[in-house]
Amino acid sequence: MNGHKYLPDEYDGKGQLRLPFLWLILLLQARTWLLLVMAGASRQQGNDLLALFYPDRQAFWIGLALGAPALLGLLLTGYRLRWPRLWRAWKSVLVLSLLVNLLWQGVQFVQGDLLSSPLPLLLSLFDLLALGWLQFNHRLRDCFVPEHLE
């Protein structure tokens, strides 16, 4: 334990969440938003960077929509103690978002849009691993349990 009798190992002595895999999963899901920020930071090459990863503009907008729950989850981590019910429900939102993302990538793969590069297949594998991690890792599950948050 970490010294506090009511906080699990996922939290430090100040009640701060210290579970790097949750942060990695959220960043993986919000990858299109990260790319948008990087493109905005590099003004001259921003359009080229977006065109490299998203040659189809529609895929970019879908990526932003699918990454929005993770982006909101990143923001919500700071309010998990104030809104424990919302924080607990957010795990289901993240799982649903990952399932929709995997379904969309599967449709793209069947249509042959993803055959030109191994990157989408690798990202799909990471999304599948993140889904399994969210569902079956007990430490990650425990950080969404309100008893630990109230």
Helix content: 55-70%
Structural class computed from helices and strand pairing: mainly alpha
The number of strands is 0
The Cα radius of gyration reads 17 Å
Unreliable parts: 1-9
Number of helices: 7
- What pattern of helices and strands is seen along the backbone? HHHHHHH
Strand content: under 5%
3D shape: globular
Mean pLDDT: 79
End-to-end separation: 18 Å
Main pleated-sheet profile: none
Give structural notes:
The chain has 150 residues and is mostly helical. It has seven helices and no strands. It has helices at 20-29, 31-41, 46-53, 57-76, 84-110, 119-136, 138-142.
Structure described in brief:
Helix content is 66%, strand content 0%. It is an all-alpha fold.
Keywords:
single chain, mainly alpha
Topology (elements, then pairings):
Blueprint: H1 20-29, H2 31-41, H3 46-53, H4 57-76, H5 84-110, H6 119-136, H7 138-142
Helix pairs in contact: 1-4, 1-6, 2-3, 4-5, 5-6
